[in-house]
Design a protein that fits this description.
13 helices; 407 residues; eight-stranded mixed beta sheet; globular; 15 strands; 23% strand; three-stranded antiparallel beta sheet
């Protein structure tokens, strides 16, 4: 995490402090189905999600998107999804920034970034991104779980983990090139090219923040489009409308993003540009920037596991807001490199282990099975327990996967 005081003239913004997959994030959708309802149809549901949501490297979306639509989506975020009928009005209430960064300026996004983003709207991508059907396994905070509507053991949810695809990556790449020149001009030095930065007040700094906001809006539209497709997949299998299935968004959190927030530093109230790369915002109860539904519980914090491991819903705390600027973990980091996983793990053994746990899997690329195997990552439970014990976020609900769709 990187902090810059917005008011100091020497304060900087760094694309490396945000990450290449801008607004990579996690969305949780609840249902009123139980594991008993879903278990007999698990394989069909996994296939239906796989058929509805385009996955994998270079996957192309099925949401009709013209160049004009893309411009509007970059500027409007989830308001575009709502206008086009791909989102429910209440979805954006349960989303960071209400699914739209208002400082977005599509003219600051390069033609190459737009070209990469245009065909990828509503696609999952590859790597550690996934769509999972999950079941509530444990409830630690009944009041918080009740507010979220995930308060019954055995209740079925859907978790979607994805970001801004090629568009976000290109925005970051373009900014790094532009900022290298700005650093030479302004006498700024870093020990790593990927930490290239520019003064917030500079033309390069403002260009990046406005382009980053567009990429963040794109990511929210992307997850909204996949939410629409997941609702269609479930409706088709159960012959009921998504509304009848209570497929409401519990919350949508961002990982790789920079936002202006107000915090106390050494007794002084300050405006900071908070870069969160591989961390999650975790605001406490009564904070003005969290939805009214969660004012008494604190912001829901979604911690995704990896293929075959559990995920968690936490809530933000006052202690975390004071000590970590309202931030907590975003998941378990890798324990093995992708190359090591491909060479040391056996494809069939990983699949057999998932089958033994009762997990249906659909994956576009076989090599991803080894790269994303549970053994490739650290123990997410240990990470979550550490954050809970430190008091920077509080455990509310544990979820286990019963079906996994990956790129």
């Amino acid at each position: 995490m990187l902090l810059s005081s917005v008011l100091l003239p020497q304060a900087v913004v760094s694309p490396g402090g945000v990450g290449f997959d801008i607004n990579c994030g996690v969305r949780l959708i609840r249902t009123n189905l139980s594991v008993a309802d879903v278990e007999p149809l698990k394989e069909q549901l996994a296939q239906s999600l796989f058929d509805h949501i385009p996955v994998g490297v270079g996957s192309q979306g099925i949401i009709p998107t013209t160049a004009k639509d893309l411009e509007a989506a970059l500027e409007m975020g989830m308001d575009w999804s709502l206008r086009e009928g791909y989102s429910w009005a209440e979805d954006k209430e349960h989303c960071e920034e209400y699914g739209r960064m208002l400082n977005a300026d599509p003219s600051k996004v390069s033609a190459r970034a737009k070209k990469r983003g245009l065909p990828q709207m509503g696609t999952l991508g590859a790597g550690n991104h996934y769509a999972e059907i999950q079941v509530v396994e444990e409830i630690y905070d009944e009041a918080a779980a009740r507010k979220m509507g995930v308060d019954v053991t055995g209740q079925v949810c859907i978790m979607i983990h994805s970001g801004s695809r090629g568009l976000g990556h290109q925005v970051a790449t373009d900014a790094l090139v532009e900022m290298e020149a700005a650093m030479a001009r302004d006498g700024i030095a870093t020990n790593d090219r990927q930490l290239a930065c520019a003064r917030i007040s500079s033309k390069e700094g403002q260009n990046y923040l406005q382009a980053m906001a567009c990429a963040a809006n794109y990511a929210w539209v992307n997850r909204s489009s996949m939410t629409f497709l997941a609702r269609q997949a479930f409706a088709k299998q159960f012959h009921r409308t998504p509304d009848d299935l209570d497929m409401a968004v519990v919350y949508d959190v961002s990982h790789n993003i920079a936002k202006v927030e107000e915090h106390d530093v050494d007794g002084q109230h300050m405006k900071l540009l908070v870069h969160r790369k591989g961390s999650t915002r975790a605001f406490p109860p009564h904070h003005p920037l969290i939805p009214v539904d969660y004012q008494l519980t604190g912001q829901p914090v979604l911690i995704g596991g990896t293929m075959g491991t559990c995920s968690y819903v936490l809530t933000g705390t006052e202690k975390g807001f004071r000590e970590t600027f309202g931030s907590t973990c975003h998941g378990a980091g890798r324990a093995r490199s992708r190359n090591n996983s491909r060479h040391k793990l056996d494809y069939q053994q990983v699949l057999d282990a998932l089958k033994a746990k009762g997990i249906a899997i659909r994956v576009a690329s076989p090599k991803l099975v080894m790269e994303e195997a549970p053994e490739s990552y650290k123990d997410v439970t240990a990470v979550v327990d550490t954050c809970h014990a430190a008091g920077i976020s509080k455990k509310a609900v544990k979820l286990r996967p019963i079906a996994v769709v990956k790129g």
